[in-house]
Fold each of these.
Amino acid sequence: MSVQQPSTVEPLAALPAQTGAAPLPEWTALGPVLALVAAGLLLLLWDTVFPNRRTNTELSVIAAVGSLAALALSGWYLAAGTGRPATGGAITLFAEAITIDGLALFFTAIVASVTTLVVVASRDYLTDHETPGEFYSLVVLAAAGMALLASASSLATIFVALEMVSLPSYALVAYLKENRGSVEAGLKYFLVGAVSSAIFVFGISLVYAATGSLLLSDVAAAFGDLGDLAGVAGVGVVMMIAGFAFKTASVPVHFWAPEVYEGAPAPVSAFLSSASKAAGFAVAFRVFTEAFHLGGEVTAVGIDWALVFAVLAVVTMTLGNFAAAVQTEVKRMLAYSSIGHAGYALIGLAAISAGGSHNGAVMGASMAHLFVYGFMNTGAFLFIAMVERWGVGRTFEDYAGLGTVAPMASVAMTVFMFSLAGLPPFGGFFSKYFLFAGAVFNGFWWLAAVGALNSVLSLYYYSRVVKAIWIEDPTDALAAVDSRPTALYGAVIVAAVATVVVLPGFGPVIETAEAAATALFG
Amino acid sequence: MVDAFAYVPAIVALPFVSFLVALAFGKYLPKGGAFGGIAATAGSFLLSLWVLATVAAGGQHVETLYTWVSTDGIAGGIGPQEIELTFGVLIDPLSALMLVIVTLIAMLVHVFSLGYMNDEGEPDLPRYYAGLGLFTASMLGFVVADNLLMAFMFFELVGLCSYLLIGFHFREPGPPSAAKKAFLVTRFGDYFFLVGVVAVFATFGTASFAGSESFPVLAEHALAGEFDAWTPFGLEAGTWFTAVGLLVLGGAIGKSAQFPLHTWLPDAMEGPTPVSALIHAATMVAAGVYLVARMYGFYVLTPTTMAIIAFVGGFTALFAATMGLVKDELKQVLAYSTISQYGYMMLALGAGGYVAAVFHLMTHAFFKALLFLGAGAVIIAMHHEENMWEMGGLKEKLPVTYWTFLAGSLALAGIFPFAGFWSKDEILYEALVHGLNEPLLLGAWAMGLLAVPVTAFYTFRMVFLTFHGEPRTDVARDPHPVRWNVKGPLTVLGVLAVVAGTVNMVPVQKVLGIEGIDLLHLWLDGHYGGFSELTSHHYAELGPYSSGYIAGGEVPTVLIGAGVSLALALGGLGLAWKLYNVAEPAEHTAALGGVKTVLYNNYYQDELQVRLAGVTAGVASAADTFDQGVIDGVVNGVSSVSLVSGDRIRRVQTGVVTHYAALLTLGVTGLILVLGVLGGWFL
């Protein structure tokens, strides 16, 4: 897989990089993160200056502008080739604690897109909430943490960034203080998160003890000759896997996900299940390829991590899909489906063989899947947010006949469901296709087969939603559908359009992702 | 000068436009859109003549009009990686000639329909003329196709149109059933054709008919070891090409009603008679033979396929002719004669007689269209009575119909000097001289020769029963008169049935040594215009046959062959004369004894196919059981297993956060233990 740079953007490419006539200073590579941080601080300031404003439109606009700026910057850098081999390689800042490369920018773009959708949709979701100010600042600051997590290249920054994502998330899940489910979910999330963080940081300390460094590159070098400490390092790596599993809602640290996604406000569920999960995968991809020799020869630790991830991927996707099939509530079904998709994305770490020719393709396909997932899953949760706002029930039966009262949004939801199931011609089909094809080319046909079987099963429960919306007769509950929340509608439609537009636009997405992933293996 | 080839797409488009016009505005047009159809086919006919003249002046033309799929390599695929799917036109002597035949017949059928449909007050005329227009357009598209895939698509359109037109009187019970039968039986052959098309693409990466990169040329190179064609399972190139050729042949056998897929054609008589004329003479049935002729360069490379084509053709020629012996209905006799005559064409193609096959395709188009239109005229006159035993004595009342029908019958029976004599004689001659060294081919020739007296017998049985003797019913005594729109087409075709044979008087040339009167040979050999790889002498060079002669040379062989077949034809005619050219003819079928029943029932072909269909129904129901029981069982099993296990998962998900913390810790610990043991960390 060669890295192709469009020649027309060469002048831009030179700007933030070291080459060319007038390059931007290196710190500007952190622009997307800085834009999010700035927006978060501005939101806090606005809330302090106008504490009694009852409308949250301004807050929503500020947050959206900040996340759009982050999206635009990361998109620009991606198009210009910043931090890519063609323009001088990855940009490292703060003594290599932060690395800006294709992977970081790609995931920053995913996080920024999801954040934009979520903050726009939240204007209508939180329209009569008393204190919306904190909500927006927490979302945007958590997004900043996610973007930082995708760029972190030292175990210390990784841990800090991870907590920067986790702490606002706990508060966000419990944000509906009057709602018992929300508060309970927040507490559970916090407790499980605390345990996971403890395990994770313990794992970091063990790795540090074995290698003597926190920088990923130094850790990689030390892994070549661990001596007696191979066991210590191995235990540390496994504990770190647990930390990543918590962020990505994968087995064995997936228990929190259904309860939290169900109890949290729906926009927060969308945010956590799409952006937070993607950020977790970003850091896992980076740590395992750069520090723990995934895709290289098996180190002194004596374990092929790809095989571990293969087992986890199979268990995760199977468990997620099987559990989703028996749910009665749509939101909880989506929560389990989110676990299932974490299993698919894990293929990007699992179908990696030592020196395999398609390693970059598989991991890139996994990244592209997370990109598409960012839109279709966020859109699905935002549709649920809309239904929650209307006060229609939560079960499949309650959704009966929604297509008659909200046709546009229902079409969008149909697109999300079929795309999540992986039906052509929607985005989810292409990303899954490339993912499974990459796995097959790398010799992991059985993994692709399990993934395909799971996709078939998933069609069952996704189509239940579509059936309820379009085919079943409307119930009295639909009388509650009385309003047209503009911003929420807009966000759902935009997500649906993005899911469909991926059809012609998938080439650039998969190429960028594969180039970014290939650079990691280089 | 404006290039005629630029108008080739218009030849196809004009009837298509008439289809659209008749469909959309037929209700508001005079005569239900008939004039639009006549104008369109007349326009196509004139353009075709122009194209023919341009080819005669040394032109040829191949052009890709539209590329609808282009790929620069399919990852992980088999065979050649670069495939383009295109629409294009190929004009060479063969297709130019066929264009003229098809447009001429189509135009005459349109005119005749004025008399048969409009004057008889048939309903739904716009639908009828729309069908005719689309039928003609599809066939013309098939004729000019420059690649196999495009040919296949128009081939299917032709099949669809035949379905629509055979079932035109869909409110009666017979026609819809016949239409379905025609559609399904030909579709059965087309499945093989489709697989063949895919096989051609997989093997050669192209399906074009003409050019140095066409698949017949590539196949030639592959057999010479100069081109590396993809073959499955490591088969020899020759073996695989035979298989591909037979697959494509499946489509031709279905459409051209060759044994064993001929059963749809007699039933197709349920369609309006002008449609039968179009189907039998110029479109649907001709498509199969034309397809084989179009890719003849591929077939001549594989002797096995050639032998099979010849044998199937010879067998069909005899087999169908015997079934025509005892039929009572005018159109039924003609239907079996069509099957039989296309059998001759297949025999010619299989015997290496490319020119002979095209020659017979042409003469047959004229005289069979004539006979069907003549039958249509009789049916008009007889108030839609088709049973020949209800007719008799029509000679006096319908002179134009009688004389033209007689010309057509003489041509069909192969009586000198009518058109059919020349073409049939050339087929038998080719089969004989090539068959002297090939026992299988000689067998095919023998069957073809045996069919000659049978053909003459049933043809004149039909003529005598219909036109001679005393009228046997009141209607026959006072038939309905027919108008110019019936007589006109009959006259044109009647003249052609008499003189068309003169374009290719090979026997005369060989015996008397007059050069240059074998026009069709020169035409198809590229003496005027055409592609060098699509000429008859190129095919002859590639072909597997050598010529042998009897009685010491070419001239005696020609004379003996022609003499024997003419004698046999006259013998059949004479027998029919003796038995049926009397005032009160009797059936005389009792003399056949048990054979009669067999013939009446068409050798129980339909029953056999129904029984075979019954077997397939058994297979289908077994497959259904398998699907319901095993596949669905597995799917249901998976989902119920998943529902049950999903339920387990739900039970683990207790909602108590301490359980989660415990499970989480246990899970991570378990992971550490397993991996630690595997990785040897605790040693």
Amino acid sequence: MAVLVLAEHDHKAIRPVTLHTASAAIQIDGEVTVLIAGEHCGAAADAAAKIAGVVKVLCADDAAYGHHLAENVAWLVKTLAGDYSHILAPATTFGKNILPRTAALLDVAQISDIISVEGPDTFRRPIYAGNAIATVRSSDPIKVITVRGTAFEAVAAEGGGAAVEVIEGTGDAGYSSFVGWELSRSDRPELASARVVISGGRGLQNSESFKLIEAVADKLGAAVGASRAAVDSGFVSNDFQVGQTGRIVAPDLYIAVGISGAIQHLAGIKDSKVIVAINKDEEAPIFQVADYGLVADLFEVLPEMMKKL
Amino acid sequence: MKVLVAVKRVIDYSVKVRVKADQTGVETANVKMSMNPFDEIAVEEAVRLKDGGMVREIVAVSAGPAQVKDTIRTAMAMGANRGIHVPCEGELEPLAVAKLLKALMDKESPDLVIMGKQAIDDDCNQTGQMLGALANRPQGTFASNLTLSDGKVEVAREIDGGLEMVTLDLPAVITTDLRLNEPRYASLPNIMKAKKKLIELITPEDLGVDVTPRLEILNVEEPPVRTGGIIVADVDELLDKLRNEAKVI
Ligand SMILES: Cc1cc2nc3c(=O)[nH]c(=O)nc-3n(C[C@H](O)[C@H](O)[C@H](O)COP(=O)(O)OP(=O)(O)OC[C@H]3O[C@@H](n4cnc5c(N)ncnc54)[C@H](O)[C@@H]3O)c2cc1C
Ligand SMILES: Nc1ncnc2c1ncn2[C@@H]1O[C@H](COP(=O)(O)O)[C@@H](O)[C@H]1O
């Protein structure tokens, strides 16, 4: 069996989630090929070639892949698919956008967001916001899968010595185009890979006081997250949302401040090693999952933490 | 312009889902069912486009057992003009739904298909992308804003790093994210009126689609439960525990 991993990268470097996806691929089979679809992406291909356990890198360098438009990348993956038994991508907005399109082009099902490999055709995945775990077996000739990064240890970024094969692009579908980005720039660690995450909820009241969260985050070297209510209220931008329909995190330490603990939020944090809840309502459901709970007013707690950290 | 919206009937988001004792699935008997929240956002967006004069007709589609007609009625009470029910029993996978919707696109020729980014039961996040592929049309997934102008739609997409703007030729497939709009509640008079609107019945056979699942669900189980820990008295105790007991800071 041979496994193709569609890498998430920024053309210059591999995103860490690609290493977690490669780890799932290695569990399926040793023969792992990584596909870099991008523009001026030679550096990313070279980085992919060093990933431990990767035997080959395919590099499709074409303007059509400059912004990873799903219409173009999905078609490229489809044309390569014949050589593989499995095609994997990270279950990020990158992978979720592209891979179902490839699956449909191949007339196969997609298995979304797997958290374990039980065998070459059998995988486990959360459903109902993680309130149930389904074990599913695929009868399709090619298994198309997105991988929940937090469920697989990253493979080493160095140590491999795969050959890079340059391949032809498949062109531009011609009906979609990239216009622009509004990216949140931050010097803090990435939400998905941070060792410590501190998130704020509606309890923070406004974007001004959300800065208290950011200040404590900087003391801890933590990434910042938020509940849906905090995002909807405009305290922070959408990409901070942690939960069923936002980002999934699994840090060593997760601190929830002014967050009630709705099922949809818990779905995104359940695999954290240690959960801390700071909430003034002792009945808040977040305390049912927190290892350490502090029933107190966050406007007193956060400044005190600032001082004592 | 004509818009097709896909609406799925799911267990209400506020229900605490329980796994069946025999581990074949989750308990659905006597459980509150509702329209998938992302599909409410899809219907709302279509209705706003109609209210703004950009759209002439909205067709709401749902595939599933007879009860999904309630979900179609809800969409019509919110402002959809008519409904299509594709009767199906048992497990329906995203690929099958995408094929049904593709066949309906061929029949109805909509300019835009709007659907949810994710059904909150299977959490698949696939159907819209699959429809885009099958129909050979562009996709605007995880949309938080839509702007229509002659033959094109500009979509702001919620991505991991922030927002991405793309322009798509029509017809296009859009999947909604939470920030696109806030869905309205259907008013009682509109609910009454929706009861008189037409729901057409079109079977998978009529559409020439095989909906047989490709995946076998071997088992469904409870996730490992996280139990609550301790309540600390103050910040000092909290920091002490984190430093010396959990050793995470
Ligand atoms: C389809 C769908 C998808 C969703 N996806 C997500 C998701 O991915 N992520 C997500 O987070 N939510 C999601 N939600 C929303 C979720 O259901 C909750 O509404 C949301 O998580 C609530 O956010 P919150 O805890 O910040 O707000 P609230 O529930 O309002 O809680 C605020 C908390 O702050 C506390 N508080 C207030 N003031 C203070 C103070 N001074 N000091 C200390 N504590 C204080 C209160 O006691 C309360 O517990 C989704 C909902 C739906 C329907
Ligand atoms: N049975 C169905 N009937 C109508 N629409 C559906 C059905 N299943 C899925 N959809 C649509 O596809 C979207 C994504 O579903 P999924 O890919 O299952 O997460 C949903 O939000 C609906 O808009």
